[in-house]
Amino acid sequence: MKFLKQFIIAAVASCVLAAGALAFEPQKNNDPKPPPKDTKQVPSQPKNPPPPRDNGNKGGNDNKRGKP
Length: 68
What we know:
By secondary structure, the chain is an all-alpha fold. It is built from 1 helix and no strands. It has one helix at residues 2-23. The longest helix is centred in the N-terminal third of the chain and has 22 residues, at 2-23. The radius of gyration is 33 Å and the shape is flat.
């Protein structure tokens, strides 16, 4: 039991040290950002209106799932 406790403490300590070492590593992407691109005007094409809806068939759910 003593060995297990020491092993767990050692594992946690090594993880903490590794995380600390990674946190203080210098950043690799210190390059300046590229300048923003010019905005382009894209002409939008006119859309055709949708066809009229057929509201004649309202349907209904009379619990006829799968029945003819």
